[in-house]
Amino acid sequence: MKKYIYVFSALFIFTVSVNSLMSCRKKGDTIALITVRDTANMLVPGARVILFGTSTTDPIQSVIRKDTATTNSDGVATFNFNEVYQLGQAGVAVLDIEAEKDDLTGKGIIKIEQEVVSDAEVLIQP
User: Fold this and answer.
1) CA pair distance 36, 71, nearest whole angstrom
2) Is this structure's pTM higher than 0.85?
3) What is the per-residue pLDDT across 14-65, written as a single tens digit (0 to 9) for each?
4) Cβ–Cβ contacts within 10 Å for residue 61, how many?
5) How far apart are CA 88 and CA 70, in angstroms?
6) How far is C-alpha 54 from the chain's CA centre?
7) Domains of the chain by range and CATH?
């Protein structure tokens, strides 16, 4: 009888330990970086970058998500998707990119991966 109590106690402690370790996993950052370049391959600071999802259903739904940022002095716009991604979720999103500055525009696409920095480059031209 004592043997069963020891085995049961050991299994109980093991189960509680494993569950507490798994529930403490901290979620990593999910970031998208969009680099904007012009036709001379120069970085473009101050460009407006828009990320948005397009519906794939029929009938077409409204835009899924739309975020806007401005490129910094290095020509990079940063988007944070920490609130969108939840632990255990497979993938985050595939989004369209539109970039513009003055009379220059460009388009692209980016796949946002969970808990990593995803990046894409957009060429803007007249």
Assistant:
1) 7
2) no
3) 665 555 555 566 777 889 999 999 999 999 999 999 998 876 666 655 555 5
4) 11
5) 31
6) 16
7) 28-123 (2.60.40.1120)
Which residue is it, tokens 């403490």? 24
Q: How far is CA 86 from CA 30, 57, 82, in A?
A: 10, 23, 8
- Cβ 97 vs Cβ 85: under 8 Å: no
Extract the runs of DSSP E, i.e. beta strands, from the chain: 31-37, 48-52, 66-70, 76-80, 93-101, 104-112, 117-123
Q: For the chain, first and last CA: distance in Å?
A: 83
Return the DSSP state at 64.
Answer: S
Per-residue tokens: 114: 């969970």
Rounded to 5, what percent of the chain is helix, strand, coil? 15, 40, 45
7-24 in b/e form (b: 16+ CB < 10 A) is eeeeeeeeeeeeeeeeee
User: 75-116, pLDDT tens digit by residue?
Assistant: 999 999 888 766 666 666 889 999 999 999 999 999 988 888
Higher pLDDT, 1 or 39: 39
